[in-house]
Write a structure and sequence with these properties.
The complex is a heterodimer. By secondary structure, chain A is mostly beta strands. Chain A contains no helices and 8 strands. Chain A has a 5-stranded mixed beta sheet with strand order 2-8-7-4-5, with no helix packed on it. Chain A has a 3-stranded antiparallel beta sheet with strand order 1-3-6, with no helix packed on it. Chain B is α+β, with helices and mostly antiparallel strands. In chain B, 22% of the residues lie in helices and 43% in strands. Chain B has 2 helices and 8 strands, in the order ααββββββββ. In chain B, a hairpin with a 6-residue loop joins β4 and β5. Chain B starts with a helix and ends in a 5-residue tail after the last strand. The chains are: A mainly beta, B alpha+beta. At the A-B interface, β3, β5 and β6 of A face β5 and β6 of B. β5 of chain A pairs antiparallel with β5 of chain B, so a sheet runs across the interface.
Chain lengths: 109, 138
């Protein structure tokens, strides 16, 4: 599962200084809750993304702790202030230790 | 006291309803909330939780929170096997203290959001979501 986690992020390409923009993120991940059972009745072990962070030029925008109750393919929509041109960095932390990253740069129009 | 047929029916129905109430799950949710607030009693106001009234699919229930001035917001599902859903911590560059995500709900239940305000106080809001198909697998 971990191999095909594919992050998708939507960030505007430009903004005016100080503008508040909306960011949407989606990552493909099964988010196995640990509650389900396989066909033999054995519980399927939990395997989820447990943390998501978004930073802009090293400053934190949002830091989310995820629990098994978050749906398959975790989706987040939130707002960020853009003080200057720079890069948004998105990081997802998997239960198995994998880290998925994506980055989007934004320019001041 | 003479037990009429009507009384007996009412008693039976009441007992059935009481046994269906998820007492244990509620206690677990209260515990999880107390863990987040550190035992403080949350107040009201200043926090909006947007959840559908009826969710057809418990696997993906869209929810939004909006809490101007909050440091962090935690979401709890009182009727889920594990009540914790997510905790949002807002950093210095957060454009607003709001976020949207999708969550799983095991069945019809109250969804509770608790926000920690910048002054250290807590506010809480809850919303009943009716779920047609539960989202915990089987």
């Amino acid at each position: 599962m971990a191999a095909d986690a594919k992050p998708r992020v939507k960030v505007p390409k430009t903004a005016t200084a100080g503008e508040v923009i909306t960011i949407k993120t989606l990552i493909s991940h099964e988010m196995e809750s640990g509650q389900r059972k396989d066909s033999d009745g054995n519980p399927i072990p939990r395997s989820i993304i447990n943390r998501f962070t978004c930073d802009f030029n090293g400053q934190n925008v949002i830091d989310v702790t995820l629990e098994p109750a978050i749906s398959t393919n975790p989706y987040f929509e939130f707002e960020a202030t853009v003080p200057e041109a720079g890069e948004f960095k998105f990081t997802w932390y998997d239960d198995d230790g994998s880290v998925y990253e994506d980055a989007k740069s934004i320019e001041i129009a | 006291m003479k037990l009429t047929r009507r009384d007996a029916l009412a008693l039976g129905l009441g007992a059935t309803a009481a046994s269906f109430l998820p007492h244990r799950a509620m206690a677990a949710a209260d515990e999880a909330i107390a863990e987040f607030t550190g035992g403080a009693t949350p107040g009201e106001g200043g926090l909006t939780l947007t959840a559908p009234e009826i969710a057809e699919n418990g696997n993906t229930v869209p929810i939004s929170i909006d809490a101007p001035g909050a440091e962090s917001v935690a979401i709890f599902a009182t009727g889920n096997p594990t009540p914790k859903v997510a905790t949002f911590n807002f950093g210095p560059l957060a454009g607003s203290q709001s976020a949207t995500t999708r969550m799983r709900l095991a069945g019809t239940q109250d969804v509770v959001a608790v926000a920690k305000m910048a002054d250290g106080s807590f506010v809480q809001v809850s919303s009943l979501v009716k779920v047609t198909i539960g989202g915990c697998g089987g």
